[in-house]
Amino acid sequence: MLLAHHERCFSPGCRETYFSAARKFSFCGGCARVPFCSKECLARAWNHPEIPHKSICKKLNLIGTTTKIPSRPEPQDRSKFQDRLHKAGIVDSVLADVVSHLDKLVKETSTAFGRFDGIFSNIY
Ligand SMILES: [Zn+2]
Ligand SMILES: [Zn+2]
């Protein structure tokens, strides 16, 4: 899940991980939640024809800053996450956009993103 800990490039089609590249990646400057291995990968992800990062960047930023969920969340953080989302009045349509985007991204890469893959989809 993007709000959780992740150590891979989030550009569709890219398989680079911190481990394979033997370094950490820079996060997207807009949402600060999604790492990319290179400027090229960020550019490709940003304008991807089916799942462009630009379509969810602001929404991710909103959700990330509102919930202040740590980059390595613990299982008990899930209720805090839901609570803060609810209090902030983040509308379901914003969340639904992010959820469906991430679902597509996960399918596209067919790679596990970490422990909290389902944090968005499980809150409904
Ligand atoms: Zn990459
Ligand atoms: Zn972003």
Automatic annotation (TrEMBL):
Keyword Nuclease included in the entry's annotation: no
Q: Which domain of life is it from?
A: Eukaryota
Spell out the molecular function terms from Gene Ontology: zinc ion binding
Record carries keyword Ribosomal protein: no
Keyword line: Metal-binding, Zinc, Zinc-finger
Mind telling me which InterPro entries this protein's record contains? Answer: Znf_MYND
MYND-type domain spans which residues? 9-57
- Record-given protein name: MYND-type domain-containing protein
| Organism field | Laccaria amethystina LaAM-08-1
